[in-house]
Amino acid sequence: MQRLQAFRYELMPTGEQQRQMRRFAGSCRFVFNRALALQKERYERGEKKLGYAGLCKLLTEWRNGPETPWLADAPVHPLQQTLKDLERAYANFFAKRAGFPRFKKKGQHDSFRYPDPKQIKLDQGNSRIFLPKLGWLRYRNSRKVLGEVKNVTVSASGGKWFVSIQTEREIQAPVPKATSAVGIDMGVTRFATLSDGTFYAPLNSFKRHEDCLRRAQQAMSRKTKFSNNWKKAKARVQKIHARIGDVRRDYLHKATTTISQNHAMVCIEDLQVRNMSRSAAGTTENPGKNVRAKSGLNKAILDQGWFEFRRQLDYKLAWAGGHLIVVPPQNTSRTCPACGHVSADNRQTQARFLCVECGFEENADLVGAINILRAGHARFACEVSGAVMPPAAGTHRSDSFRLDAGVSAVGIPRL
Ligand SMILES: [Zn+2]
């Protein structure tokens, strides 16, 4: 079985390397934005979108032209990768997976990717990596890189530089140690409730840091834009953002590791987070209802990283030999697990479930988790017997159901 895995380290660049990396990231951003602007103009003129090959041709002209000769200083492959990213952004937009591609801004996701392993040298013994036009870079060697290097991404976050090394290696198909199955209900008051009764407290990393962040943002707004003090204040805001991300990632990783090691089959509801987190305000013709409450909920959902939770569960289960089963969200919060009665009245409040038919009473999230586990069992049985189940609405990947896939449904941890 092929296992794709990313290893991420903090870089310890020299001053010159830092300046170069900033320049390279800036060049990539410039190329992305220029290509996007061009595609938009073509669209307005009624012309067809340029393909990747066409854009690469233009990139060569830009690099050799008189207007932007500095583009030639940046390594060419990362610039081309930027155009690939733009292609993918368009593809995601047309497939309705994402919004229209947006222009990149300085300081947001500054990064560039080296796609050719032949140009990359990794010297783990000396904790250094060689990248084209940057030379040897030292990194904080916190763990061994396993497998064959496929590509390398350099990125900036919170004033630091990181390198993410994507690798591929052959591993033996894992045999799951756990045998149990569990259903998970995702919620706002409880981040996740398992059908065995355990639950995870809400992840309020953002809330906890919110005051801190607001103060820093206010301090920044009081400074004269682009002054030295403004830059310092901005660095502080970015640092808090990075810290929030770290806390959230750490929490999610711990939760998903525990769950994937203790259960062979995990059933989860296919919540369409994208729909839920879409602007609650609606449009002018069709204004949204309960805008305040909904945007609060949306924020909580995003804050808690449900998507990230599911993504991590998916690949960690695959690594452990388990399976993630996504079930369509139908009546999971309204069905009585004791008598099967389905009614919206069963759920009088957000927290309590009380069956109007048989009087069964339980925490509403736990009831949801039990129902999700049942739905998952039914789905799993159909898969095994070969019956065709309609895919859950918006199911992210069918790999989750495939039991004998040669390549596991690995998510590449994009940290
Ligand atoms: Zn009942």
Automatic annotation (TrEMBL):
Pfam family, one: Cas12f1-like_TNB
UniProt GO molecular function: DNA binding; metal ion binding; methyltransferase activity
Family: In the C-terminal section; belongs to the transposase 35 family. In the N-terminal section; belongs to the transposase 2 family.
InterPro entries to which the protein is assigned, alphabetical: Cas12f1-like_TNB, RNA-guided_DNA_endo/Transpos, Transposase, Transposase_put_HTH
Domain Probable transposase IS891/IS1136/IS1341: 165-279
Cas12f1-like TNB domain boundaries: 306-372
Name of the protein: Cytosine methyltransferase
Organism: Tepidimonas fonticaldi
UniProt keyword list: DNA recombination, DNA-binding, Metal-binding, Methyltransferase, Transferase, Transposition, Zinc
Domain Transposase putative helix-turn-helix: 1-48
Single biological process term from Gene Ontology: methylation
